[in-house]
Amino acid sequence: MRRWIAVFMTACLSLQTWTYADTPVSAAGTTAVQSEETKETVSRAVREGISQTECALEVEVRSSLLFPFQGNVTVKISSNKTEEQQKVLDFKNTEGSSQTARFDVPEGNYSVSVQADRFAGYSQTAAVKRGWISKVQVSPVRTETGSSAVPGWIRPGDFNGDKVIDSKDTDIVLSTLRKTPGSAAADLNGDGSTDLVDLQNLVQSIDENQVSHVEKLGLPRKVQASGETTVEGSILNFMNGEGDITLRPFDRESAISKENPAGLEFTLADQHVPTPEIQGITIHAPMEEKDGTITSGIADGEAVVVCEDGKGGEQETVFSLSDGQAAAKTGIRRMSRADGAKVSAASLSVDASGALVLDFGTQLAVKRVVIRITGTKKTEPLINIAKVEFVNNMEDRIPAPQLDIPTVNTPVSGNESLTVSWSAQRNITGYEVYVSSQATGESQILRVANTKHLITSINDKELKNFETYRIKVRSVNGDWKSPWSKEVTGVPKPQKLPAAPDHVKAEGGYRSITVSWKDMDDASGYMVFFRKSSDTDAAYKPVVKGFQPVKAGTGRLEGTKYVISGLEDNTEYSVYVTGWNELGWGKGSLVSKAFTKNTAPPQLPKYRLLNTSRGEGVLTAHIQNAVYGGSGGARMVGSPLDTTANSALGLVDDNYGSYWTKTDWDDGVAYPAASKGMVVTLDNNYKMNYMTFAAADMKTGVNTVRVGYWSKEDKQEQTVGARLIAKTDAGNNPYYIVKFDRTITADRIHLCLGRSWGGAGDLVVGEIHFHKYDSLEDDIMGLYQDDMHTTLREDVTASVIDALERRLETADTESGEKHPLYQELKLELKTAREILTSALEPARRVENQITAAKDTHLGFGGLNSWQPLGKAAYAGESLLVYVGHNTKRTGDAAALKLVVTQHHAESSAVMKTMDLKVGRNEITIPQITTTDQERGGQLYISYTGNDAADQYAVRVSGGSSIPVLSVYGKTGAARTEAIQTYVKELEIHVKTLEESHSRQHTGTKNVDYPYDKTNCILNATDIMMKEMMYSLPAEQVWAGLAGAEDKAAKLDQALQAMEKTMTLFYQHKGLSDSAGTERGKNALPSQHLNIRYMRMFAGAFMYAAGNHIGIEWSSATLASAPSDWSGFGWGVAHEIGHNINQGSYAVAEVTNNYFAQLLTKTPGRTRFDYAKVYEKVTSGTVGRSSNVATQLALYWQLHLAYDDNPEDKYIYDNYEDQFNNLFFARVDTYARNPARAPQEGLKLNGGADQNLMRLACAAAEKNILPFFQRWGMEPDAATITYARKYGDAETKALYYVNDAARDYRAAHPGETGTVKDQDAVQASAAARGGQVEITIRTDRDADLILGYEISRSMISNGKKKTEVVGFQPVDTAARTIYTDTIYSINNRVMEYEVRAVDKYLNYSRPAAAGSAKIQTDGILDKTEWTVETDMTSADDIVMEPDTDDPDSGYHADRPDSTEAKRVHSIDRILDGDRTETGTYHGTSKGTAVITIDMHRTEQVTALKYLGDSLAEVTIEVSQDGAEWIAVKENVRGLGGSAEKTIWFDSVKDGERDHWIGTYDARYVRLAISHTGNIAVREIELCGPTGDNVEFMAAESGQPSIGVLTADYKYGSQASDVIKKGSLIFTGTYKGNPAYNVVVLYDTEGSVIGAKDGETQSGQVIFANVPAQGNLGETSEGTWVYYVEPGQWDAAALQKLQGVRAELYRVDDALTLEGERIVSDTQMISIPHQIPNITLTNGGKSEKVD
Q: Which residue, 501, 500, 515, is CA-closest to 587?
């Protein structure tokens, strides 16, 4: 049989949006008058939540965004037993809302009517039963739900107010269209104008009807709060469906939880009504997610249902309400107390309205229900409930409608990435992918064309491994968008074994080692291994007993810290850490070492000790008293001696168990006060020049001290300069020497301590020692005449020094100890001997121009103020640092810091600094790293002041000398001499390195290692220039020079190359010492960058961090740089760029590459691919390119567009030329000095992108926002406002500029020969499947033409929409080809235009290239597919195993037992090569199988085969490779010279000719019955192709357009006739006739058949209907579009240039929801003579005369 669908058409369909049934309900107005008695009853009911009603009738009216109610809606009910009642619902100020009118009525049958302005009257009947609520739902949109439970339809379109929709209303709309088009007089859909859409919607309403299914709901007799819940709002209104309520838990300050629940209790049965049978509950507590999704606000809870047990008793069943967002859960129940009723197939879900739907699975006789909420999705301690409904029969419930949406596959994890794919949808133009971070809440919506997308970032923030991300997808077609798919989650994961953990640190504790490490991006678990350092032959042990490094990671550690306990005390242990991920265990980290501690207290020096011990816990000798200030929580702990307030005798009782502590970073140093610190009183005046103190188990050290004192003669507190010298005892316990700047005599000492870095950690002092004065130190210091200790007194001889040395070596008779400053004093004597022998190293002058204080204007960090001292020192080594100054006195604070570094360090353990004073500074080198390597490194001085008068000199006594070169400020002969001297020193140093290491380091703690050139701290050198300092291995620097004849010249050339590089970079940043102040502060940095030999962390080859650039051994040579600077690679310039990036617009890994591109660019080569650039700037996508190299091109193009010098590395010799000729010099100048921009009002407060756009407009002095918009940036309002100050938007095509265009412009100034606004191009378009090939020609010189911009247009609703789709660089003037590949669009006509762009970036006039229709068979992408067969082939080649090709089957552990793999030539059937080279030749022995694995589930509809003829083939599909479905059986005659398409079966035999089968499949299998050889050239698989529309052609080849020769009867009704003389258009379509409609347009975009807005046209759509009557997707349907006689004019028709068809599809055939265009045709010509036409069965044209 045939089924037809006829639709009167005068316009296209339109998008319809409506609000679902279960949105929150508003209170309804009423016209009823209540008596005083009624008022009292209502008042009591409101207070108590009690209903006196025995039954009720509810009418819920939904509004719609498509057809909004424009005023009040009146609901009336009546019966033969009661008077008419009405309620008025006010929709004036609502949009897309729902309101309910409730009537408490007696049992009976009722008539319901609903009336609204511009809507037909709606009526139906409803029966109301005692004890129940009967509910009717009415919507202005006709809605199908897939069942008989549908809402009623109040039809829109009553314009004359007679409550009927007929031709009178149609005439009103047509009249409005004719007389006042665009006015709102007959606006139906609320868009503010009357148009054909309104007419079409009206026509849809004529003679149609749909009444609501009547839902049966339980009637609660009583509602009350459960437990200690508080209810806000009217419970009565809530019960009546006329208001919502808010539930708050008992604890109103805490969130709703299991311990703090909120609940409601419902009573459904009492003495007045029987117990109702209930099958389910809907709880309406909707909330909107950030992305607009409606969900339930309830996250956790339970419904306790009390039922009759059938025996007169009660039983209780508990249903979980846990996470309504989850998929429906079956069998969720929890029985309590009694054996509850058996409940099967219970389910929980959330519908599209956000309602939580609980289906019991069966009907229960429910007496009471307690809903207990224990978790919400809100942060507030409350939950809003709109309504709760008790459903008698869940099948009768009217659900919220669901639309077809993409099915998202499980995301595939990649390293810091996720690949998401989904099922292809038909008739759409693309997809939107929503991705959000569960950890941060950051989210983004991405527009994509394909069904697969790689996600690497959210809003330019990279994804992180092991974090969870939420993803969903929806389809897009123009303005139409489907609902979101079900949300899936993905977790990025590394794709290789984890790298060795970085920054491993070991710290000793009491019989324990605390190990910490960096949380690695590629690891999700760790293991720590350890052993005693002395047990070098022993294996390392894991800290988890029984641990084995299995792939599953069993026993792995979480976190980044572990304490190894139970160790031996006072023992050094070695540790390392490994990382784990799902692929297994990675390599071990560097080994770190630490000593455990014991319970023995610190051992303070006893040399000439004054307060000697009298026993532990007893006040030491010569102490009278000790007190502490008590400020800020300071206190004594564990001190039996301290029984009175502020007593501190425990500080001097020889007991470390009694101690002073304060939880703070300062106690009187930074903020002096009498109430701070500790004061110890002695029994007499004593002369002293230092004191010592310590504490047991000191966790955090101190580095600042203040000392006050009194004497018996002077009662005023005096202060003495003091400094702390940190030391460790034999047990590795720290202690401090407080060294006074001068000798004092005192009987009271006031000690205050602190830390200059602040931070957490207690201040602690356990014991204080005072030491009697010894003249030894003063006598040694007395050898010198100056503070710098460079000149001896005249009477000093070798014998004097010898005598002092003997005294130093003599131990104290009482303690047996030598002087606490033994190492420092020994260095002093060594210095004295060096002065006597003229071997003293000179002091180094500090450059006072190198200081961070001068660089605050720059706007970038990464600089370094270190000045090398030519020394390396090991951890624990004692040094003397002498500081001299031109005006300051000894003891004054110096504006200097000593910088101590770690050689070959990790990035987190580079340096520590120490404050210095004028004069002598005793320094103990701190340990920076615990790594098992030589600990120590180079020393530097850093000037922190900003005073040109400061003259500092520094000399270091101690440490090891290393070669240093400074060319800072040196030119000419002085520079040459310095370099020559350095080269000589470097050569000697390198040649003696190993010997020096052996002599100085053997047996010395922290450097006692065999010589290792990569780690020996002596293998170091520093070279300081003005803008750069190298800190590199001495051997590597020498290696770069050793082969040169003139080593000094070679080194100088290398240094000049770097100096030129930095000059180039700083010129592009607008920096110059000759800049002056006219444009603000633009002076060059006073500090330098520092390229430093460092240890690389995981994944790094070089890096930039803090104040240095780290490089490894292989990169640390200084090769000479030839004139083209090729000696420097991309990497160094890249890292320099990091450190000098302008902060206001910097984008990591992008803007820094501008400098690398500057330095390394060679003719014809850039780091990025211009094809990718052009793809980005013509894509129309928002946001940055995912490729950082492509992002670089944005900045490079600005340089090319505005800098005319073709020599990118050109260095200007004056500032004005620099500023005027370099675009980014101006950008960075205005970034530093916004007030100096050409136009006022430049604000840099918009983030990197907005700031860049504003700065670029200022630098160009043009509004160049179109350039940035093409790059996907979206200017905000402030940026647009500022850009407009520079005039109209730039029209030049800056986004296409390349290096060749800039070079041409520079060589041909004046824009000679420009194509601007001229005809310069001819083009033609031709479709080839899913591609359109544009052939372009020009009559201009090809050297002038940069390329061609291609625009694509599509027409929808008669209106053209144009977008740029590509840019093609010119090939030749005669022929340039551009191929437009169309991904998600099919069966659409594309029109193309081409504009030439010359190398001046001007556009020519556009040239039409014609149109082409995209038509594919839905061929799927085969990139990741694999294929197997059981056929054999002579082309299957054996691969010999080898170590270079692991895919050949080679196994390193058993190579002789591995079976070699073969190259399976069957892969050729997927390679796209249809030539003989790509043909598979196989042999079948009667039956053969070819199995294709697509490696993801796809929708497949057909198979395309090209190859030899096969006897018989059956095609099967499978989702799992186990269960197969035959989709086409016993196909014969397949093969031949032409490609054959096999459409998969969909319905039963006899119904397969016209219906397409679509299957979800991962695997497709061909079962072949054939004997002998088979040649297969290619196999393709096709997915759904989408709908298509075409015009038919008559036998003559002319379009089937003509005049109908006889009446054509197409249906069973008398009116189902197309009249003779009608103008007929016929065509074919592919799609679903229930959801498709055809519209014809003329060349002006007017609908065919519209004559003065008063004529209707019609159409009939034909399709075969399966026997069972269900319409599906047809591959062969026809349509007839007609205009009746008298309604068309032949003369007017001849004036039309042509006609074209558009095919539309909707999601819902009745509501028209989701309307969008899915196909169209090219314009066809109207025949000059309109022929006669005859229609046959199915609407096909049989004859054209």
A: 500
Nearest to 139 by CA among 200, 66, 218: 66
Report the distance separating Cα 1082 and Cα 1096, nearest Å. 34
Neighbours of 1170 (CB within 10 A): 19
* Alpha carbon distance 1529, 1526 (integer Å): 7
Write down the residue that tokens 């429910």 correspond to: 366
Helix (H) or strand (E) holding 1171: helix 1170-1177
Give the model's confidence band at 719: pLDDT under 50 very low, under 70 low, under 90 confident, else very high: very high
Query: What mean pLDDT do residues 998-1023 have?
Result: 96
Dihedrals φ, ψ of 721, to 5°?
A: -60, 140
Query: What's the rounded mean pLDDT across residues 864-885?
Result: 95
β partners of residue 9: 1657
Q: What pLDDT digit, counting tens, does each position of 482-515 carry?
A: 778 889 999 999 989 999 999 999 999 889 999 9
Give the contacts of 461 (CB within 8 A, at least 6 positions apart): 442
DSSP letters spanning 225-248 = E-TT-EEES-HHHHHTTS--EEEE
Q: How far apart are CA 227 and CA 256, in angstroms?
A: 13
Tokens 């009583």 appear where? Answer: 222
Return the closest-CA partner of residue 67 out of 213, 272, 176, 205: 205
Helix (H/G/I), strand (E/B), else coil: 383: strand
Find out whether 631 and 676 touch, Cβ atoms under 8 Å: yes
Percentages helix, strand, coil for the chain (3-state, rounded to 5) are 15, 35, 45
And the tokens for 836? 């006597």
CB 1573 within 8 A of CB 1482: yes
Q: Report the alpha-carbon distance of residue 51 to residue 1284 in Å, rounded.
A: 66
**What is the rounded CA–CA span in Å between residue 677 and residue 722?**
15
Residue with tokens 């180079």: 938
Residues 6+ positions from 1476 with CB-CB distance below 8 Å: none
User: What span, in angstroms and rounded, lies between the C-alpha atoms of 1179 and 1352?
Assistant: 12
CA quadruple 609, 617, 621, 764: dihedral positive or negative?
A: positive
Question: Taking a C-beta distance cutoff of 8 angstroms, is the pair 521, 464 a contact?
Answer: yes
Residues pairing with 1148 in the sheet? none
Helix 822-836 vs helix 798-809: angle between axes, to the nearest 10 degrees? 170
Q: Tell me what pLDDT residue 191 has.
A: 61
Residue 731, Cβ neighbours under 10 Å: how many? Answer: 14
Alpha-carbon separation of residue 1476 from 1484, 1535, 1573 (angstroms): 20, 16, 15
Name the pTM for this structure.
Answer: 0.67
Q: What does the block give as tokens for 1279? A: 């940026």
SS3 at position 1307: helix
Label residue 1267 exposed, middle or buried (CB < 10 Å: 0-12, 13-18, 19+): buried
* Distances in whole angstroms, Cα of residue 1397 to Cα of each of 1295, 1298, 1318, 1349, 1386: 11, 12, 11, 7, 30
Contact between residue 1744 and residue 1731 where contact means Cβ atoms under 8 Å apart: yes
Q: What is the overall mean pLDDT for the chain? A: 86
- In the chain, count H helices and then E strands: 22, 97
Torsion of CA 1185, 1189, 1191, 1196, to 10 degrees: -150
